[in-house]
Specification:
The chain is mainly α. It has 2 domains: 179 residues, no CATH class; 82 residues, Four Helix Bundle (Hemerythrin (Met), subunit A). It has 15 helices and 6 strands. It has a two-stranded antiparallel ribbon. A two-stranded parallel sheet has the order 2-3. The chain has a two-stranded antiparallel ribbon with strand order 5-6. A hairpin with a 2-residue loop joins strand 5 and strand 6. The longest helix is centred in the middle third of the chain and has 23 residues. It is globular. Its EC number is 5.2.1.8. This is Serine/threonine-protein phosphatase 2A activator. InterPro entries: Phstyr_phstse_ac (IPR004327), PTPA_C_lid (IPR043170), PTPA_sf (IPR037218). It catalyses: [protein]-peptidylproline (omega=180) = [protein]-peptidylproline (omega=0).
C-alpha cells in the first residue's frame, strides 16, 4: 500500500455532496455506528479486554498529557481567549508524534507520516487556538486508520469507547482548561458542549434501556454526581454544570432531556452527527483525505479571490494557507469557558469538572 500526506479536498457544496455518497463517508459513519452499538448498557467502570494495541494507544495519550503538564500556560491575564502556550504544546506533540507511533504494534513505518497528520490535528488548531467537532473527528479518523492497519481489531470496540475515547476526552479537558481553547464555532457544537459531540452520542448508547435513569435525570444534581463516573453523558453534564448553566449554555441538551427514552436520544444523536458534522461544509472543508481515507471525487480547482471574500472583505487566513473558514471578522469571537470563569475570579482545575464555578455568560 502506498501512503500519502493527507490533504483537504472539499471546497464546494458539490464536493460535499459527493463526499456524503462516498465510501470514506460510509466508513466513518459505520465505525461510529459499530462503536455505538458495542457500548449499549456498558459502564465506564466495567471491566473490558485490553489488547496490546489498546494499551499502546492509552500510553500514547498519557504521553500527550505529560507534554501538556510540561508546557504550562504563559501569563496571559489580559486575555480571556486562547493561551499562546498551546502553540508550543502543539509543536512538541508534532515533534514526538513519529516516535509515539513507533510504539503502536503492527503499524507499518511507512504509514506513520500519514497517521501523524490526523494525530496532530486532533488536539486543536494551532493558529486559532480552538477546538471543536472537526478536531474530534480527526481523532476518530486516527482510530479508523489504526483499525484498518491492524493495530486494533473490531473486538477492541468496547475498549476503544470506554477506555481510549474517554481517555482522549479527559486529555482534551486538560488542554481546554490549561490553554483556554476557544470553541470552534460561535456557540459550540449546536448547543451540546462547547467542544465535543461524540461523548453524548456514545453516552446515550450506554444508557439505552436503563431501568431507572431517564433523559430528564440530567437535571438532578445528585444523580449527575453519582453516575458521572459510569456514563459519558452524565460526565459531560457534570462538566458543563461546573462551568456554566445548562439551560442557557446548552439549550439543545435541555430540550433533549424532555425525550422519553435514551433509545430516541441515541437515534437522534446519530442522525445529528451525520447531518451537522459530516454534512456541514464549515466542518468537512477541513477534512483530511489520505490513502486510508481517500477522496475519489473531483479535485478542487485553484481558488479565486472571490472564494475568500465575504461581504466585501477577506477572511482571515492561517499562516501558510488561504483559510476558507469564518474568521473573527464574520462572527462573534467566543472566549473559553475557562477564561470567562477566570475573569470572574474562579479557577477551574485541569480535570473533567472543576470546583466552585458559577455561571458566566460569554460576553
Amino acid at each position: 500500500m502506498s501512503f500519502i500526506q493527507p490533504r483537504k479536498c472539499i471546497l464546494t457544496k458539490e464536493q460535499l455532496a459527493h463526499f456524503q455518497q462516498s465510501k470514506t463517508h460510509d466508513d466513518i459513519l459505520s465505525f461510529v455506528q459499530n462503536l455505538n452499538d458495542t457500548v449499549v448498557g456498558v459502564k465506564l467502570t466495567d471491566e473490558c479486554t485490553m489488547s496490546p494495541g489498546v494499551q499502546a494507544i492509552l500510553s500514547v495519550l498519557d504521553r500527550v498529557e505529560a507534554v501538556a503538564q510540561d508546557t504550562p500556560p504563559i501569563d496571559n491575564k489580559a486575555s480571556r481567549f486562547g493561551n499562546p502556550a498551546f502553540r508550543t504544546f502543539y509543536d512538541k506533540v508534532a515533534e514526538v508524534a513519529p516516535a509515539l507511533h513507533e510504539t503502536l504494534p503492527s503499524l507499518p513505518k511507512e504509514a506513520i507520516e500519514e497517521l501523524s497528520v490526523y494525530f496532530r490535528e486532533c488536539w486543536g488548531n494551532k493558529s486559532r487556538i480552538d477546538y471543536g467537532s472537526g478536531m474530534e473527528l480527526n481523532f476518530l479518523c486516527w482510530l479508523i486508520c489504526l483499525e484498518k492497519l491492524g493495530v486494533v481489531q473490531s473486538s477492541d470496540h468496547v475498549a476503544l469507547v470506554i477506555r481510549v475515547f474517554w481517555r482522549y476526552v479527559e486529555v482534551m479537558r486538560v488542554l481546554q482548561s490549561t490553554y483556554w481553547l476557544e470553541p470552534a464555532g460561535s456557540h459550540g457544537v449546536w448547543g451540546l458542549d462547547d467542544y465535543h459531540f461524540l461523548p453524548f452520542l456514545f453516552g446515550s448508547a450506554q444508557l439505552k434501556g436503563h431501568k431507572h435513569l431517564k433523559p430528564k435525570s440530567i437535571h438532578d444534581a445528585e444523580i449527575v454526581d453519582e453516575f458521572a463516573k459510569d456514563y459519558m453523558y452524565f460526565g459531560c453534564i457534570k462538566f458543563i454544570n461546573s462551568t456554566a448553566s445548562l439551560r442557557w449554555h446548552s439549550p439543545m441538551l435541555d430540550d433533549i432531556s424532555a425525550v422519553k427514552t435514551w433509545d430516541k436520544v441515541n437515534e437522534g444523536m446519530i442522525k445529528m452527527y451525520r447531518a451537522e458534522v459530516l454534512g456541514k461544509l464549515p466542518v468537512i472543508q477541513h477534512f483530511l483525505f489520505g490513502s486510508i481515507l481517500p477522496w475519489d471525487g473531483p479535485m478542487p480547482s485553484p481558488p479565486s479571490e472571490e472564494d475568500y471574500v465575504h461581504k466585501d472583505h477577506a477572511h482571515i487566513a492561517e499562516p501558510g494557507e488561504r483559510n476558507l473558514g469564518w474568521g473573527s471578522c464574520c462572527g462573534i469571537p467566543v472566549p473559553s469557558v475557562f477564561g470567562a470563569a477566570q475573569a470572574e475570579g474562579k479557577v477551574l482545575g485541569a480535570g473533567l469538572a472543576g470546583p466552585g464555578i458559577r455561571p458566566v455568560p460569554f460576553d
